[in-house]
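Possible regression after last week's pipeline update?

I re-ran a chain I had predicted before the update to compare outputs. Posting the input and the new output here so someone can diff against the archived version. Not blocking, just want to make sure nothing changed silently.
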Amino acid sequence: MALPLAGIRVLDIASMLAGPYGATMLGDMGADVIKIEPPYGDESRTLGPGVENDSGFFVGINRNKRGLVLDLTKPEGREIYFRLVRTADIIVDNLRPQARAKLGVGYKETCTYNPKIICISVSAFGQEGPYAGRPGVDPLAQALSGLMSVTGEKNGKPLRTGAAVADATCANLVAFAAMVGLWVREQQGIGQQIDVCLLDGLIHIQPSQVGQFFLLNYLQPRAGNASPFAAPYGTFTCRDGRDIQVVSVNNKFFHNICRAVGREDLITDPRFTTVQDRLARGDELHAEIQSVFSHVDAEDMMRRLIAADVMAAPVNTHRETFADPQVQHNQMAVEVHHARVGKLKVGGVPVKLKKTPGAVRLAPPTLGQHTREVLQELGLSDADLERLRQAGVIK
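New output (post-update):
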């Protein structure tokens, strides 16, 4: 059975994370994603540890794509680009408005070659408005959106998240926008420009904080791994030094925790009778439970917690995460053959369609890996390719 997006072509001219990862999600579902990079490559190729110009950052983001090097600053490069535009359904970019205008690859120019194209433009703060054109990255969106203000220890400074949550959220919005754009085109026969930004995405994923603010003018305090609304709720350290995150949201789960750790006396302790009592004495309650964790290894404690129907999970490193049986069952690590390093595991497909599932088909491309293949599909000859190579248009 065909993959869900078989027959859809996506041109990915974005760099770093949000735009490219959104294009990857379309590739996971079968779209032919062509990643177009300048001769020096996507900036993420050299960010962090890697092998030559294949960084772990790039490899983690760009599965299920064919790689094409094309210099859009050169007229011949733009000519080839617009030939590809004629064959495409979706373009994903994260160029700033001034860069898009300078290159001449804006929505207006693009529509002259393909009126039904769907152009998804990613930015930090929005394509229009007072911050349009400003440079921006994930931590700035976390700061501006209020997310950073609710992240961190109770008495500490605001913190950004360890993962690039603004970029990852925006990538999801890129994929969602593509689906809506394709449906509108199917129903109404029109293409369009779609804007998504990191700032809007992070406001979007804070519905409870936004609701509290608008309803009650309530500003949620930082609480670290705890909660301002429930207790016990937090990280407990076991005898072997491993941490376990435990969550309790009502009396039922509080009682389950007490039974799991052999402290049924806490259930009837007048200090901890209600949620409000437990919150008021959260530090005392945490200490009571921690005293038990300190004498039990994490594996044994997890068995006790699971048996008692407690909401709990070990705090894993990525090595432990990908050894976890549920992660393995979910196929969230898939082996591919990478042109430079050979066997390589990449992230799996998170959306599980039961009748038409997506698949990891292609390893992240090396720089320019599929240039010849893609351009030959456009009808360029070997002589054309050699001339373009010598002119620095392709690589």
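Follow-up from reviewer: compared with the archived run. The mean pLDDT is 98. Marking as no regression found.
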